[in-house]
Every structure is written in C-alpha cells, then in structure tokens.
Prior knowledge:
This protein is mainly beta. It has one domain. It contains one helix and six strands; from the N terminus they run ββββββα. A six-stranded antiparallel beta sheet has the order 1-2-3-4-5-6, with helices on one face. The chain is globular and about 40 Å long.
Amino acid sequence: MAPPALAAPAIEVTPLVKGQSLRGRFEQQRFLQGFQAPLKSSGTFVLSPGLGLIWKTETPFALTTVMSPAGLVQEVGGRETMRLPSARIPFMSKLYAMLGGA
C-alpha cells in the first residue's frame, strides 16, 4: 500500500501591485561537493515589482545582491564586487519577470 498523500495547506496568493513590496527573512541550505555539511545562510529580502529584488545575506558572511531591470550587482562590505548588465545575462529578463510576477 502506498502511504497517504499529504495535501499542502490552501494558501491564498495575491500578486503584488505597483507600490507594494514583499519583505521577509530567509534561511537557505546548499549542499556543495567537497563539503560534508550543508552551507547554511540566512538574511533578509525585499521584492518590489518594477523595481527589483534586494537579497541580503547576513550569515555566514555579509553579501548583498540587487537584481533590477538594469542587471545584477553584488556588494561585500559596502564595496561592489560584481556588476552584470542585463544585456550580458539574457536569462535575467526571464528570471526578473518571474520574480516581478510573484
């Protein structure tokens, strides 16, 4: 016999509209080759339709990633470490559209 299926609780989803933002905290685990334990990170995020996503990792080290229609920027300790214009990363427009429609 198969175990009973677990149904996900019903959640009402209301898309964000212009001027609204979604803010929250996150915890993430990544399993990387060569490491026995998962890499655990946590921090905060802000998602604003039409403006972008700010993803701030607090632990294990501070890293800020900003994704906007212009592209992707990362900062460590207040210093920019990477800047990729959206023209250089074609998948960015699809990813950004998906996040903006969340």
